[in-house]
Amino acid sequence: AKQAGGGTFRRYHAGMTARGAERNELAAALRTAIVEEQLVLHYQPVVTLPEGRITGVEALVRWQHPERGLLGPGAFVAAAEQTGVIVGMGRWVLRTAVRQMAAWIAEYGVAAPATVSVNASPRQLQESSFADDVAAALRDHDVPAQRLTVEVTESTAVGGGATQDNLRALRAMGVRLSLDDFGTGASTLSLLADLQVDQIKLDRSFVPVPGPDAIAAAVVQLAAAFGIEAVAEGVEEARQAARLTEMGYRRAQGYHFARPMPATEVSARLSAPPVT
Ligand code: C2E
Ligand code: CA
Ligand code: CA
Ligand code: CA
């Protein structure tokens, strides 16, 4: 039994090492990718209900891998987070999104998206320089803080390190905060009260039709009670948009309206008629 245990341990250990090595390789490749500009941002419109007008865009990272083609964040963000490469990657995402926002403001004026949202992971928020990096990016591109939204999940928001200082500093400079994947984490109402976010994003697993209405309806009422914006994510069908509108949602995001797309395609839509 002892020997079997040892064998099990060795196999388990070897497996961990293989996975660890793979992760480190990915992280090294990702570091190169940042320098060689293989990362790209796609932007997914957030639209108004019921008009379907673009009111914001969420920046979503992709990796144009030289051998493997265009990779989604599912293929590399977790490894980036575990190895710390996410800090450099996140800085690139932030600066690129803010620079793009400056370009939209310059070119489209009042028709530019009101805000660009970037996703921030736990490791990024724990970094003591995060809020300063945000401030520097905004200053360098002359973008008002109100036009940037930082999306965090509930577990990110309760993180340690410099997380709480960063959240405070972001709020103080006027950057908008959004609570992502709302309802899937360890949500508590006191967290919602403490965080003072500007927006909550209903996780797509709670979007009604054919799913039940209860959580989606409760979340939009919760947002109203807190005086903040509710966004429904993952809206794929017209009847879902209609149902959410009935419930009181005024913001939505999902394939029904627009998929994540290169900045140039967003630009084309800023002058095109809305989708409803
Ligand atoms: P998320 O922040 O919840 O982003 C929404 C995800 O849902 C995106 O996947 C988007 O393409 C997808 N989506 C949008 N509309 C629909 C829809 O109607 N139906 C369905 N089924 N899916 C929809 P994506 O781009 O693969 O990103 C996955 C996750 O990766 C993001 O989830 C976010 O957590 C993370 N991520 C993306 N970009 C970044 C980044 O720059 N930094 C960090 N730290 N994480 C990122
Ligand atoms: Ca998000
Ligand atoms: Ca605010
Ligand atoms: Ca989400």
Structure description:
This protein has 276 residues and is α/β, with parallel strands linked by helices. The protein is built from eleven helices and nine strands. The protein is 49% helix and 19% strand. It is globular. It starts with a helix and ends in a 6-residue tail after the last helix. Mean pLDDT is 92; it is low at 1-12. One calcium ion (CA) binds at residues 171, 176, 198. This is PAS domain S-box-containing protein/diguanylate cyclase (GGDEF) domain-containing protein. Residues 23-274 form the EAL domain.
Give the topology, please.
Layout: H1 2-35, E1 39-48, E2 54-65, E3 69-71, H2 77-83, H3 85-108, E4 115-119, H4 122-126, H5 130-141, E5 148-152, H6 154-157, H7 163-173, E6 176-182, H8 189-195, E7 199-202, H9 214-226, E8 229-232, H10 238-247, E9 251-252, H11 263-270
Parallel strand pairs: 2-4, 4-5, 5-6, 6-7, 7-8, 8-9
Antiparallel strand pairs: 1-2, 1-9, 2-3
Helix pairs in contact: 1-2, 1-3, 2-3, 3-5, 5-7
Outline of the structure:
The protein is of the alpha/beta class and 276 residues long. The protein has helices at 2-35, 77-83, 85-108, 122-126, 130-141, 154-157, 163-173, 189-195, 214-226, 238-247, 263-270, and strands at residues 39-48, 54-65, 69-71, 115-119, 148-152, 176-182, 199-202, 229-232, 251-252. Residues 23-274 form the EAL domain.
